[in-house]
Specification:
- Belongs to the EamA transporter family.
- Keywords: Membrane, Transmembrane, Transmembrane helix.
- InterPro entries: ABC_Gly_betaine_transp_sub-bd, EamA_dom, EmrE-like.
- This is EamA family transporter.
- It is built from 36 helices and twelve strands.
- It has about 900 residues and is α/β, with parallel strands linked by helices.
- The strands form three sheets. Strands 5, 6, 7, 8, 9, 10, 11 and 12 form an eight-stranded mixed β-sheet that branches. Strands 1-2 form a two-stranded parallel ribbon.
- Strand 1, helix 22 and strand 2 form a beta-alpha-beta unit.
- Helix 15 runs antiparallel to helix 18.
- The longest helix is centred in the middle third of the chain and has 44 residues.
- It starts with a helix and ends in a 5-residue tail after the last helix.
- The N terminus is likely disordered.
Length: about 900
């Protein structure tokens, strides 16, 4: 068996790593697709490819497929369980893709990966025979991780509240729930199929394939019932290739190969690799696509990772250090929610309570230490009595007594303790014991030791300790200073308080090296009777001892089964232990960094603290070393942003360009401490009232000479629309609206713009307020719409949509302007400015002066767009423009004469 496993180890490792790579790359694949597809199109295409490949593989391995089909009731049960799994799988896929497209990708990835914890809970209820009950300390870990995910979700509620896009993060929770609930039903299906095909990997393949098919069908039904059309207009060969990688790689290869690897090689390190997938995804998203990562998201990520590893390895987590870490996590999360206020005379009360806690903790710790010393002495006497009472030559009775004593001491439930105590008492009544005096002495010694062992803390001492300790922590948190050190200090105080409480709670096992030392010390007696040392199975499974706990020359029994046989050597966890301890260290580091990251920038967009009433942008912290220019994504803005960067660079002013969603950018520009300093292409008329007020009161400064642009509702005509459609009001007629129907449902489609555009929101409100029951108002990416428009133009079909000038569409197609955007007070033309925050007047007066004087013409913008449509890189367009306007740029930056 050992040779077989060792031989396959390289292949198993490769399979495991390949699986994790596919899982980690899914958000990266989504980012690569970008706005060429929306969540529905990407999922349907990927799932359809996966289902097609499953059918092909099933045909190739027809013998196994035939055996499954002929298995009768097993097949029907498998289909039933797989179908239930498929419905939950639909929640996972649909929710995850929708969250990735509608919310911050890093946040969505982290939240969705709570699924192993949900599965941990679900399996205990749905398939209890496959897993042991969760212990109270494990529940603490699960709940703490859910709290971390909830904190990330609450932070998103504070992002883009005005646009409503923040609520898309809820789909990440739906995804996590679906994936967690899917697993136990998939297990049931796999068990049924394995009996028919006699192969775990193939059984997993068939169960996953059926579930994938059901999930695809469920999502298609959902899209149909919600009238959500599929728009594959912008799909090209690259997008289809990426969808194939997602479908084949993650839906099939990753699942099947991982199951095989897990079955063939029982390695904690290998089997824990999936839990690192979100960490890899977040790092790649940040490095490759500059996706923002909030401080609260980092805390949530490492907390979820730590919890997954602990539960996965059944790591012992009842010692003071682990419990303190968990409790401090709760305090750190609470610090992001609790207000910072003044409470009058309460600080004096808090100081008195904290002092009382310190005195009480010291007193109780002294008492606990004294009791512990007495207990150690009593145990030494008990061991000697156990040895003395045994008349057998091989010390069988003494060995049993000492083993049961260790089992009693390390049992975690009162029922187990009672069982082992009864076993000890029964052993002392063994008829082979003939010396009644020694029997009575052993029984008396047992009673004395047990009384001391049980007398740890009284109810009153425990209550006093917890009341003063928790009270001190709460008061210190409420009274913390607004500075980062104030919050960090309160968290450190909480950690110290909890460490004192948990150390007193179980004094003998709760110092850093005490557990291993305790195990070795409790072996007293075995050497005297010539028996190997003994370590209870509970301790072995906890992961808190290693092969180095005892000397190499020591003979040690690690646990025993119900029939009294030894379980074998302790598992070697050196690699996993290093990974696990490193993750715990990351949790501590993240807890301490969180308040500093959250408070050093005041109410900056970096904070993203989970307070739902904070309307802030989903961006990272400000770069004080450079001016940050926003690139909201459309061609004119992209070129203008690079021109501004180059112009500032020529003046010796460091500047960077960062991509950002327009909705996030609008919120950031009016934040108290914004990340972005410059908006290169601000259509003022389309902005929120708050942003317009910021311009009016001088917090946001616009350049002196804007260029003229226009926006409105346009039509790509055919002969009928040219005759019959003269205004937007004509769309109220169902027959007229039907002229723009492209999906065959009789309702005409009206493209309002991309999600998050203010103009799209205004149009949505107008459509909802009118009697336009035959009009389908649509919001999706501009890239998809332009691809659709090209297809409609070739087919001679009309379209009605929002657009703006300058835009390359007006040179490419013969478009007719139908009218202004309803609800807008502007006429045909609007002013488009370069805008910058008033903080630039202090950061760089030269930059402030240059940006106020800088101007583009409408012709410039038309040229930028036309050349970009020809395939020229925006950076090259910007460089050419700067090179040809270098004297003008110098004049813009020059200080006024006199």
């Amino acid at each position: 068996m050992t040779t077989r496993t060792t031989t396959k180890l390289p292949a198993i490792t490769l399979a495991a790593v390949a699986s994790v790579v596919f899982w980690s790359l899914k958000p990266i694949f989504i980012s690569m697709i970008g706005d060429r597809g929306d969540y529905a199109e990407v999922y349907v295409a990927s799932a359809a490819i996966a289902v097609a490949v499953s059918i092909l593989v099933s045909c190739i391995f027809w013998k196994r497929t035939s055996a499954l089909l002929r298995s009768g009731s097993r097949f029907y049960k498998a289909v039933g369980w797989s179908s239930v799994a498929g419905l939950f799988l639909a929640m996972w896929y649909y929710g995850f893709y929708r969250a990735l497209y509608g919310a911050a990708k890093a946040d969505a990835t982290i939240i969705a990966f709570v699924w192993p914890l949900i599965a941990t809970v679900a399996i205990r209820f749905i398939t209890p025979e496959t897993a042991a009950k969760l212990k109270p300390n494990q529940w603490l870990l699960v709940i703490a991780s859910f709290a971390g995910a909830a904190a990330i979700g609450m932070a998103n509620v504070g992002v883009n509240q005005s646009t409503g896009t923040s609520h898309e993060i809820i789909w990440a929770f739906v995804a996590a729930l679906g994936s967690g609930m899917y697993l136990p039903f998939a297990f049931k299906a796999t068990n049924q199929i394995e009996k028919a095909v006699e192969s775990k990997p193939f059984a997993t393949f068939y169960s996953i394939s059926i579930a994938n098919g059901v999930a695809l069908l469920a999502v298609l039904i959902l899209l149909r019932t919600t009238d959500h059309p599929l728009r594959f207009y912008a799909f090209d060969a690259q997008v289809m290739f990426i969808c194939a990688l997602i479908g084949i790689g993650t839906y099939l290869i990753a699942e099947v190969t991982w199951t095989w690897a897990f079955q063939e090689y029982k390695s904690l390190t290998l089997s824990s690799l999936p839990y690192f997938s979100p960490a890899v995804s977040v790092i790649l998203l940040h490095v490759l696509f500059d996706e923002p990562v909030r401080p609260i998201a980092i805390v949530g990520l490492v907390l979820i990772l730590f919890s997954n590893l602990t539960l996965h390895a059944n790591q012992k987590s009842t010692n003071a250090l682990s419990l303190t870490l968990i409790a401090t996590v709760y305090v750190a999360l609470a610090s992001q929610v609790l207000p910072i206020e003044e409470f009058g005379s309460i600080p004096e009360m808090a100081a008195a309570l904290t002092g009382l806690f310190a005195i009480l903790a010291g007193f109780i710790l002294s008492r606990a230490s004294e009791r512990r010393t007495q207990e150690v002495d009593a145990r030494a006497i008990l061991v000697r009595k156990f040895i003395a009472v045994d008349p057998t030559e091989d010390s069988t009775i003494a060995d049993r007594l000492l083993c049961d004593l260790l089992e009693f001491e390390f049992s975690e439930t009162s029922e187990e303790k009672a069982r082992y105590l009864k076993s000890i008492r029964d052993a002392l009544t063994d008829e082979r014991i003939t010396d009644e005096n020694r029997r009575e002495e052993a029984q008396d010694a047992l009673s004395t030791w047990h009384a001391m062992y049980s007398d740890r803390l009284s109810i009153g001492e425990t209550a006093a300790l917890w009341l003063t300790g928790i009270g001190s922590v709460v008061f210190v948190m409420l009274l913390r200073d607004v500075s980062p050190f104030g919050t960090a200090g309160s968290i450190v105080f909480a950690a110290g308080a909890f460490l004192a409480i948990f150390t007193i709670r179980d004094y003998d096992q709760n110092n850093l090296h005490g557990f291993s030392n305790q195990i070795r010390r409790l072996q007293q007696g075995f050497a005297d009777i010539g028996k190997p040392y003994y370590v209870p199975a509970e301790v072995v499974q906890s992961g808190y001892i290693s092969p180095t706990t005892f000397a190499k020359t020591d003979v040690v029994r690690y646990g025993r089964s119900d029939d009294g046989e030894n379980l074998g050597d302790i598992p070697k966890r050196s690699v996993f232990r290093s990974v696990y301890m490193g993750t715990a260290a990351l949790v501590i580091l993240a807890i301490l960094i969180l308040p500093v990251s959250s408070l050093t920038s005041g109410r900056s967009s970096a904070t993203a603290a989970p307070r739902p009433d904070d309307v802030i942008a989903s961006t990272t912290g400000d770069d004080t070393d450079a001016i940050v220019i926003a690139d909201p994504g459309w061609t004119a803005a992209t070129v203008a942003a690079e021109i501004i960067r180059l112009a500032l660079d020529e003046q010796g002013i460091p500047a960077t360009v960062e991509s950002v969603d327009q909705a996030d950018l609008s919120a950031d520009l009016v934040a108290d401490d914004p990340k972005f300093h410059v908006h290169p292409d601000l259509w003022v008329a389309n902005q929120s009232l708050e942003l317009k007020e910021a311009i009016a009161d001088g917090r946001l400064i616009v350049n002196d000479e804007p260029y003229k642009a226009s926006q409105g509702i346009f039509i790509l005509d055919n002969d009928r629309t040219r005759r019959e459609v003269t205004s937007l009001d004509d769309l109220a007629d169902p027959a007229t609206a039907a002229l723009f129907d492209t999906d065959g449902d009789g309702d005409g489609e009206f493209w309002l713009g991309a999600r998050g555009w203010v103009s799209a929101q205004n149009l949505r409100e107008w459509v909802d307020s009118q009697d336009l029951s035959s009009v389908e108002a649509e919001e999706y990416s501009e890239t998809i719409f332009k691809a659709k428009l090209e297809e409609l133009s070739r087919a001679g079909q009309p379209a009605v949509f929002y657009d703006y000038v300058p835009d390359g569409l007006h040179e490419k197609y013969d478009l007719r302007r139908l009218g202004d955007v309803p609800g807008e007070q502007t006429a045909d033309e609007v002013e488009v400015h370069v805008a910058h925050g008033d903080e630039l007047t202090e950061i760089s007066p030269t930059a402030d002066r240059l940006l106020q004087n800088l101007s583009f013409s409408t012709e410039d913008m038309n040229t930028f767009i036309a050349r970009s449509d020809e395939g020229i890189d925006p950076d090259d367009i910007a460089r050419e423009w700067v090179d040809s306007h270098d004297e003008l740029i110098a004049d813009w930056a020059a200080p006024p004469v006199g």
